[in-house]
Amino acid sequence: MTADNRVTISRPEDILGFIPHALGLWPKESLVAITLRGQTLGATLRVDLPPERSERVLAAYSRRIGEYLEADHDADGVLLAFFSDDGWDDAGVVPHKLRLLEALEPVLAKRGLALRDAWFIGSDYWRSAFCADLECCPLPGRPVDQILDSRLNAEMVFRGSSVRESPGRLGPVDQPALDPEFMGAEGAVLEELLRRWRSRKSFEEMLDVWTKVLDSSRPEEFDSEAAAFLRASLRVPAWRDAVVVLAAAGKEVACGGAEAFGFFDDEDDEGDPAVIPPGLGSLAPAAGKPTAAADVSVLRYGDVLLGLYPVNPDWNRLTSLDQVLAMLSRRGGGEARAAMLTIRGWIQWCRGSGSFAHELLSQADAEQQGYRLAELLAEVVRRGTVCGWAKSKSSAWRKFGGAAA
């Protein structure tokens, strides 16, 4: 799910034009559901259409959709959009999708969600699911250009929003550089970090560096020493997870979780501190950034990784982390790149974009086959699990900001 977005909608073309911008892509073989709170648009959910239309499959599928939408506690209605190219050639798109629509409607009604409207959208045509007037909805349907030319679509483009044809987030510009000298330097830094990764002092110094990186105005590109240190720190699994928790929940939770897991060995604190590259040590922290009080009872990273804690994550830091990782992942491949692709996939899942999350996690597995965290998160995405933050309008990520109207 994605969070609320303030836009003005007056026609079906506007609603259908809003969906690809809310998702970041033009859906293929998908059901998109938008909750309603009176006349206000709520959360947007995209799921793959069921592979078959047996009564058993449609019933199970409908229950799952109902459970997802029930997470929007303030919703009283729903809009459905079926994106599929199946059935347009023989004008059979309505009967093809009608069984699924009929299975969904009572499930939604049982949960207090009135079905306000529904549409079928293909590559070339679209039509209302309930319109039988051939003058209004001629066969096979109305041209998709009406959606692409809608006022709202133009407004979204003006705001800087773009729509991809597929969930691919990585293009030629994102390919890793082939620089053996840099990779050798990264490996040398990793050897040093592994000697002191259980040191509380080194752990906190590493978190302080990442805090500066996420909160400061960063350079367009890190120098080689800085990039090698940041990438190497993500090759230490305990430090990698701590960086994720730091970004979402703050340093206190990251340190508390590490303490609970027994990461630290006091004897390691007696050694030399970690050597911070000058390019990172000179970063100035953001002035006056507030630090939220942490719940000291939360000692496990799992609640953060599932979006169950804190109540509201630090979306600014998570966005900054995504941008930094995108930059660093271009410096080279290997384990560090797999770690960064995995974290970026997790951030997309937290934002409610399972399609983008799946693509990035698949890239992580391709970069380093069997990368464990990528495998675990990919299974979470495959099962259709929704991030805890994405279930609440108060904590969900806002792509455009504000609320829809």
**Estimated share of beta-strand residues:** 5-15%
Helix content: 40-55%
Name the strands of the widest sheet in spatial order. 2-1-3-4-5-6
* Main structural class: alpha+beta
Topology:
Elements: H1 12-23, E1 30-37, E2 40-48, H2 55-69, E3 77-83, H3 93-110, E4 114-121, E5 125-128, E6 142-143, H4 145-148, H5 151-158, H6 180-195, H7 200-215, H8 224-233, H9 237-249, H10 251-261, H11 278-281, H12 302-305, H13 315-328, H14 335-351, H15 354-367, H16 372-382
Parallel strand pairs: 3-4
Antiparallel strand pairs: 1-2, 1-3, 4-5, 5-6
Helix pairs in contact: 1-5, 2-3, 6-8, 7-9, 9-10, 13-14, 14-15, 14-16, 15-16
Structure description:
With 405 residues, this protein is α+β, with helices and mostly antiparallel strands. The chain is built from 16 helices and 6 strands. A 6-stranded mixed sheet has the order 2-1-3-4-5-6, sandwiched between helices. Helix 1 packs parallel to helix 5, helix 7 packs across helix 9 and helix 13 packs antiparallel against helix 14.
Provide a concise account of the structure shown:
By secondary structure, the protein is an alpha+beta fold. The protein is 46% helix and 9% strand. It is elongated, with a radius of gyration of 24 Å.
Key attributes of the depicted protein:
405 residues; alpha+beta; 6-stranded mixed sheet; 6 strands
